[in-house]
Design the sequence.
């Protein structure tokens, strides 16, 4: 699978979600985190759901869907 690693801010914009949601998804195993340490973490944009935005204003229309939980993981 191809990868295009982006920082949290770019990942949040692409998915139309706040950065805390991107971090939570990574913590839950829904997406993979690359690197470690403050300012060094990256996310693969191809693993993120794309938000729908207005073509001209770039305003958010619909945020990207929530990625599925990993197989075999039980949720409380």
Sequence:
């Amino acid at each position: 699978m191809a990868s295009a690693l982006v920082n949290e801010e770019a990942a949040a914009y692409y998915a139309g979600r706040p950065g805390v949601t991107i971090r939570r998804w990574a913590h839950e195993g829904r997406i993979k985190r690359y690197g470690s340490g403050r300012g060094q973490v990256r996310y693969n944009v191809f693993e993120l759901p794309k938000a729908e935005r207005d073509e001209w204003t770039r305003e958010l229309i619909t945020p990207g869907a929530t990625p599925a939980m990993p197989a075999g993981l039980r949720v409380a």
The radius of gyration is 13 Å.
